């Protein structure tokens, strides 16, 4: 009897399409970011604040993934930024094929940065590579200091962890140093930025790092 690992076949097929996506992004010189988090961590708020600070320097586009509604893409469009909505129904993540299909309608000509806001889920989105250049995670500090150890996959797979809602730390019973230690235990190379979209604390540090990351990408594409 031969066992067929359906999960492995799905991920292999996803990887092949993701590589096609990556070639498309590279061809257009677009730096692509996959933003992931649990529901309610503040992905869209982080995206809004990031766009506000960078839209005069870079041409930005956004692909939004949600189970239902276009609420988040409407928020992005209100900033004057093109946004394409992918509604997944009952699927708890975006995959490479969804992005590939979106690119038939959502053209990348003239853009510098493409943000992909993934479906709110702390596990599944990290399993599916989309062809992105950067994986960033938004984590609300009120979710607790223990989650990096309890749900390590996403923390392990990302390059950047944005610890959002630090203005709520006094009310959350969470020690930021403990949370940072737990993140680094799972992913020793992670870049960690404690931020608050409400107060603006920490956003300059994140934006400066991200801006330099995009510029390095652009220089490499030209060379």
Automatic annotation (TrEMBL):
* Domain of life per record: Bacteria
- Biological process according to GO: protein maturation
Alphabetical keyword list: GTP-binding, Hydrolase, Metal-binding, Nickel, Nucleotide-binding, Zinc
Q: Name one Pfam family in it.
A: cobW
Per UniProt, residues of the CobW/HypB/UreG nucleotide-binding domain are: 33-193
Give the residues annotated as coiled coil.
Answer: none
Which Gene Ontology molecular function entries are recorded, alphabetically? GTP binding; GTPase activity; nickel cation binding; zinc ion binding
Recorded family membership: Belongs to the SIMIBI class G3E GTPase family. HypB/HupM subfamily.
From the Swiss-Prot or TrEMBL record, give the protein name.
Answer: Hydrogenase nickel incorporation protein HypB
Say which species the protein is native to: Candidatus Chryseopegocella kryptomonas
Where is the organism placed in the taxonomic lineage, from the top? Answer: Bacteria, Pseudomonadati, Candidatus Kryptoniota, Candidatus Chryseopegocella
